[in-house]
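User: Fold this; tokens only.

Assistant: Input:
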Amino acid sequence: MNLVSASIAGEQRTLMRSISWQAYEMLADTPDRVGQLLNYDRGELEIMSPSHSHELDKSLLGRMVEAFSLHHEIDIRTSASTTFKRQDLNRGFEADESYYVSNELAIREKREVDLLVDPPPDLVIEIERSKSALDKLALFAAMGVPEVWRYNGKSLWLGRLSAGKYSTISDSLELPRFPVIKAVEILQAVGSASETTLIRRFVNSLSKRN
């Protein structure tokens, strides 16, 4: 087993190579790994311990998604950092945030999701202030995630799955007219006002757009 570890601004990523599916499942089912995110791609396992700023970005962007969906009466179901895995693909992931939107009705009555019969989340959100050791877009594409958003501390990138790859889009297909520029403005304003004030500012901007 090879091990590579890197940390930046309180955030640590550890990449383990030559990890079997059985070992990955055992680690994924470990109850005392609170706060760690596991992403697995054909023998390579990344364990990420997020920083406080990472969690702030994730929470705030997630709250904006939920406020937007409520304002526009879009039915969503959060799946947050659920462990999604498929042994047949030898892959698994835990996103920072994830949502069912187009397929919300299909899984509405289910308490658990089985990717062998159920669809993956329609939208995955990743905070990438530090770079992942894995090709996360290739991982999400292999798992069939239709849309991915990535925030790097400066900009919010939106990608849509097409022909096995993500292409840049200017407007979300899952949440049409989501105000990307305003969302980035709110994220970059962290520390200048309370989180409640920032979310209120975002919600007020939605009212002005109508």
